[in-house]
Backbone:
C-alpha cells in the first residue's frame, strides 16, 4: 500500500507516493550506477513497467511505500517496508534516485524516520536488509542508523555476470531502544 | 514453476516426485502434528485444517518461483516434502525448505538424502549458483543435516521470527555450486 503517513525530519519529508512521481523514478533508472546499487533492477523500466510496479505495490497489504522529498519539496527517491506481520519484522528498501542528491544525508535521515515508524507505530521487533558488500556508502549510512552486520551472504547477487557477496544487516528493537 | 509431472529424482534412500493436488490430506495430517509444526515456522499460524491447507497450496502451486516435491521412500511411501522457493533467475539462487512429516521416520537419513538429491537438481538442472536457508537457532538436528550436505553457517539473524509469541534467532546457511 501507499503510506498515508507523512513523516518529517530536518532535511527530508516522507509522503505518500503519487502517480506523478513515477515519471521521475523511471527517468532516473536510466542511470546504470543507480541500478547497480539498487541491486534489483536490471534494465531501465518502461513507463508502463514503472506503472505496473506502482500498482502492485499499492495493492500489496504487506508493503508500505513512501516518496522521499528534500525539505524544499523536491522529490529525491523512495523507501518501502515489506512486512512479515506474523513475525513482526520488515525488510526495508531505500533509494535516493537522483544522483545529484547523493551524499547529503537524505538517505540516513529518511531511514531513521522509517525505523522510528517501524518500531513505534508498527511495534515491529526487527527491520532487516541485505546490501551489496561493495556498496560502502550505503553500509556506512545503515550503520549510522543503528544497523548491525549479522552475516555475509556469499555470492548472493550476480551483477553483470559477476558474483557479489551481500551483507545481511538488521536493527532489532533492543538496538533501537538503546540508541 | 512447473516441472514435468513424470519427473522422478532418485537418491540412495528416497525418491522425489512433484507434489500433486491429491497430496492435500497428507500435508494436512503432517502439519497437524505439533512436533512437526514446531520446526516449520508455523507456530504463529492458525492450526492447519484441510481448507487452510488447500488455500496455501492454491497459492503455492501457482507460484512461478517455487518447485515442490514429495519425498517418498524407495518403496513408494510418502514421508515428507521438500521445496525450492524464491527461485531467482536473475541472481541464480533459491531458498530450500524441507520437512519429514512422518515423525517415526525422523533420524533415518531420509532428509539428508533428499537434500542431496534436490541440490543436484538445483545446480545441474536449474543451473543455480546458490541455495540458502534459514532455520531456528536451536534446530540442532536440522543444522547437522544441512552441514552434512555442505551448507555453511553465514550468520545469526536476531529476532528473525516469532515462535509461540517470543522472538527467536535464526541461523542463515548456504551452499554454493562450487562447495
Residues:
Amino acid at each position: 500500500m501507499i503510506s498515508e503517513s507523512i513523516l518529517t525530519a530536518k532535511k527530508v519529508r516522507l509522503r505518500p507516493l503519487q502517480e506523478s512521481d513515477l515519471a521521475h523514478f523511471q527517468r532516473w533508472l536510466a542511470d546504470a550506477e543507480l541500478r547497480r546499487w539498487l541491486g534489483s533492477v536490471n534494465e531501465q523500466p518502461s513507463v508502463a513497467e514503472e506503472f505496473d510496479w506502482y500498482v502492485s505495490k499499492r495493492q500489496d497489504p504487506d508493503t508500505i511505500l513512501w516518496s522521499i522529498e528534500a525539505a524544499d519539496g523536491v522529490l529525491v527517491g523512495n523507501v518501502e517496508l515489506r512486512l512479515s506481520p506474523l513475525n513482526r519484522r520488515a525488510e526495508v528498501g531505500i533509494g535516493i534516485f537522483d544522483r545529484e542528491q547523493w551524499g547529503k544525508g537524505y538517505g540516513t535521515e529518511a531511514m531513521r524516520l522509517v525505523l522510528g515508524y517501524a518500531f513505534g507505530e508498527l511495534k515491529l521487533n526487527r527491520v532487516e536488509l541485505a546490501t551489496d558488500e561493495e556498496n560502502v556508502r550505503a553500509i556506512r549510512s545503515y550503520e549510522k542508523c543503528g544497523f548491525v552486520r549479522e552475516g555475509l551472504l556469499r555470492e548472493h547477487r550476480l551483477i553483470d555476470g559477476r558474483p557479489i557477496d551481500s551483507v545481511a544487516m538488521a536493527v532489532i528493537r533492543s538496538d533501537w531502544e538503546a540508541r | 514453476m512447473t516441472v514435468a509431472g513424470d519427473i522422478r529424482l532418485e537418491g540412495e534412500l528416497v525418491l522425489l516426485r512433484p507434489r500433486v493436488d491429491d497430496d492435500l490430506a497428507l500435508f494436512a495430517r503432517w502439519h497437524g502434528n505439533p512436533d512437526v509444526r514446531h520446526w516449520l515456522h508455523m507456530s504463529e499460524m492458525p492450526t492447519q485444517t484441510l481448507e487452510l491447507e488447500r488455500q496455501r497450496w492454491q497459492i503455492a502451486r501457482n507460484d512461478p518461483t517455487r518447485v515442490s516435491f514429495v519425498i517418498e521412500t524407495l518403496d513408494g511411501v510418502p514421508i515428507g516434502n521438500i521445496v525450492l522457493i524464491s527461485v531467482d533467475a536473475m541472481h541464480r539462487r533459491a531458498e530450500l525448505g524441507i520437512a519429514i512429516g512422518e515423525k517415526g521416520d525422523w533420524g533415518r537419513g531420509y532428509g539428508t538424502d533428499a537434500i542431496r538429491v534436490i541440490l543436484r537438481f538445483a545446480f545441474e538442472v536449474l543451473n543455480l549458483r546458490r541455495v540458502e536457508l534459514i532455520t531456528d537457532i536451536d534446530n540442532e538436528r536440522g543444522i547437522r543435516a544441512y552441514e552434512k550436505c555442505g551448507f555453511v553457517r553465514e550468520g545469526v539473524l536476531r529476532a528473525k521470527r516469532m515462535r509461540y509469541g517470543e522472538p527467536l534467532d535464526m541461523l542463515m546457511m548456504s551452499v554454493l555450486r562450487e562447495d
Notes: Chain A has a mean pLDDT of 95. Chain A has one domain: 7-177. The longest helix of chain A spans residues 106-119.
